[in-house]
Task: inverse folding
């Protein structure tokens, strides 16, 4: 018997976390297709993309920490 998952059409897991930048609720998306983990916060636009295999940071954006332009 195969379990059917009609509502999840993409292999993506979302974990609720706390934003390391502002402390609000943020989301961690596990993009298994790309082997990436994307952490993003809607409250402060914090964004962090890391490689799931090597833990290398692909892209990081933290408003406030790097606010000086
Ligand atoms: Zn935040």
Result:
């Amino acid at each position: 018997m195969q379990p059917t998952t009609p509502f999840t059409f993409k292999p993506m897991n979302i974990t609720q976390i706390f934003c390391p930048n502002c402390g609000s609720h943020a989301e961690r998306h596990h993009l298994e297709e790309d082997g990436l983990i994307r952490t993003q916060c809607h409250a402060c636009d914090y964004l962090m993309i890391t490689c799931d295999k090597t833990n290398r940071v692909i892209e990081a954006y933290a408003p406030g920490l790097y606010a000086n332009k």
Notes: Residues 43 and 60 are 16 Å apart (CA to CA). The chain has one domain: 12-61.
